[in-house]
TrEMBL record:
Native source species: Pontibacter mangrovi
Keyword Repressor: no
InterPro entries in alphabetical order: CheY-like_superfamily (IPR011006), HATPase_C_sf (IPR036890), HATPase_dom (IPR003594), His_kinase_dom (IPR005467), HisK_dim/P_dom (IPR003661), HisK_dim/P_sf (IPR036097), Sensor_HK_Regulatory (IPR050736), Sig_transdc_His_kin-like_C (IPR004358)
Protein name per UniProt: histidine kinase
Leading EC class: transferase
Length: 411
């Protein structure tokens, strides 16, 4: 790509459409775009294979073929630059078909202006960069697998020259192989979850940002605000996903420390409940109670807060509108017990054994967003703090999590 130039290839069998697109692109201010044109399916596919364009505008109809076929084949062959489908009709079915074959966006012919075209190109390129970053993470994970495999081979050679018994050697080999399988499985789960969870909010930001620009009058304020709220929610989801990945990374690297402090428990928990209000569904409420005369307790304040926020957030996420979440704390015999009980969907019996496994999600949460990391993070925080965690769940009736901590008051 030439410096400061964005090279665009238009694939359209109608020269008039090329002229219209060229004139529209020439009106884009502050950007230096270079537009080339291909009128045939075969020629366009060959140009895409040369990988010299930054974005492709593809017409839906291409003679005996269509744009969806071109995009699908190009993506299967490894095309990295983003595709934008040009269609004569805008409907959800066309949008979904375009996204399934690998398009980043679509524009309705005859209705998009200079701003729409520039916005679509810019957002598609940024979206493609985000997906490329995920692929980079995947490559790094694969490199870690290769390094671990090499370490395994070296470990086996060392074991062959030791005086340990054959049974001991076999146990060590099996342990190393199991770790290898777990790392491979973790890598696959990470890539799958990250790709899916990033794509959903990014698509929301893309579509809402496109629609916001169309609402320009005061009468459209409500519609415009609706899409602004969707963008804010999507960004919040992305932040939550990244925070989960960051927390797991810090735990794995041993960079989470238990630093107990003494503080008043009840007002602190009420502050956490107040903080949660903006995340509750319509009609939901958190009912908090504290039991026992003692209120002061010594525990890591930040880790404790993270645990509460995660459990209360799950209680809201997996419960319907208008439901209550019961939250209680109790101090007795130098022990703190917290309980979070929801009235949600519950956890199937078959899934409960895997509840704290990284990236695991129960079979009945298919329509609820999440990474499957939250409870794993909570359990590991609890263990770092020297506590224990238990739960009780019944399908379609709700789940109760109970966490117990020892008082770590310094002598």
């Amino acid at each position: 790509m030439s410096e400061n130039k964005i090279k665009v290839l238009l694939v359209d069998d109608d020269e008039d459409d090329y002229i219209i697109t060229r004139d529209t692109m020439d009106d884009i201010p502050g950007r230096n775009y270079v537009l080339d044109w291909s009128a045939s399916f075969e020629e366009a596919l060959e140009l895409i294979r040369q990988d010299k364009y930054d974005v492709y505008l593809v017409d839906f109809y291409l003679g005996a073929h269509n744009g969806l076929e071109l995009i699908r084949q190009a993506v299967e062959e490894g095309a990295k630059a983003p595709f934008i489908l040009l269609t004569g009709q805008g409907d959800r079915e066309t949008d979904e078909k375009a996204m399934r074959v690998g398009a980043q966006d679509y524009l309705i012919k005859g209705s998009f202006d200079t701003y729409d075209l520039e916005r679509s190109i810019r957002y598609s390129i940024e979206h493609a960069k985000s997906l490329a970053e995920i692929q980079k993470l995947n490559a790094e994970l694969e490199q870690r697998v290769e390094e671990r495999t090499q370490e395994l081979a070296e470990a086996i050679k060392k074991l062959e020259h030791t005086n340990e018994s054959l049974q001991e050697a076999q146990r060590e080999i099996n342990k190393a192989l199991q770790k290898e399988r777990e790392l491979n499985e973790l890598k696959s789960r990470f890539v799958t979850i990250a790709s899916h969870e990033f794509r959903t909010p990014l698509s929301t930001v893309l579509s809402s940002a496109s629609l916001v620009s169309k609402y320009k009058t005061e009468q459209d304020d409500e519609k415009r605000q609706k899409h602004v709220d969707r963008i804010k929610s999507a960004v919040s989801n992305l932040t939550s996903i990244l925070n989960d990945f960051l927390s797991i990374s810090r735990i794995e690297e041993g960079r989470i420390y238990n630093v107990p402090t003494t503080f008043s428990l009840e007002p602190f928990c009420r502050e956490v409940v107040d903080e949660m209000q903006g995340y509750l569904k319509k009609g939901q409420k958190i009912a908090y109670t504290h039991h026992g005369e003692q209120d002061s307790f010594t525990i890591d304040k930040q880790l404790f807060k993270n645990i509460l926020l995660n459990l209360l957030s799950n209680g809201s996420k997996y419960s319907g509108e208008g439901k209550s979440i019961l939250f209680s704390t109790a101090i007795q015999a130098e022990t703190l017990t917290i309980s979070v009980q929801d009235q949600g969907i519950g956890i199937p019996k078959a899934d409960q054994a895997h509840l704290f496994t990284p990236f695991f999600r129960a079979q009945n949460v298919t329509n609820i967003q999440g990474t499957g990391l939250g409870l794993n993070i909570v359990k590991r925080y609890v263990e770092i703090m020297g506590g224990t965690m238990d739960y009780d769940s019944e399908l379609d009736k709700g789940t109760t999590f109970t966490v117990t901590f020892p008082n770590t008051t310094e002598a």
